[in-house]
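Example 9 (inverse folding). The structure is encoded as follows.
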């Protein structure tokens, strides 16, 4: 990726770079939700690792963004935390449907429910 004065130029990314950045952002969004729930439950990363059957090192790599969570680990985290993700699809073709990250976080908080409590 091109840089300008040492900063990445996000306006001139290739499609592959844009998709990789989006994947990283989605990872960080999920891990932020997990982190918020862990904080509510006073759960450490080590405890989460034990509950999902992986290493504390791997969990740390997920939180740092060094690795991206797969669907299996996210499902195990849901189970370990007693939560359920609710995912909405937003059309990128409609400007009014686009949302920014803070709004997306609000959707999570409104729809993060304990399984069986609906």
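The amino acid assigned to each position is listed next.
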């Amino acid at each position: 990726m091109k840089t300008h004065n040492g900063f990445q130029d996000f306006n001139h990314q290739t499609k592959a770079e844009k998709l990789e950045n989006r994947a990283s952002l989605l990872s960080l969004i999920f891990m932020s939700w997990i982190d918020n729930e862990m904080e509510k439950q006073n759960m450490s990363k080590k405890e989460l690792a034990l509950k999902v059957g992986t290493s504390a090192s791997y969990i740390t790599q997920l939180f740092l963004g060094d690795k991206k969570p797969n669907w299996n680990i996210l499902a195990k985290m849901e189970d370990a935390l007693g939560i359920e993700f609710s995912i909405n699809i937003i059309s990128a073709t409609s400007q009014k449907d686009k949302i920014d990250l803070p709004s997306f976080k609000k959707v999570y908080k409104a729809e993060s429910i304990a399984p069986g409590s609906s």
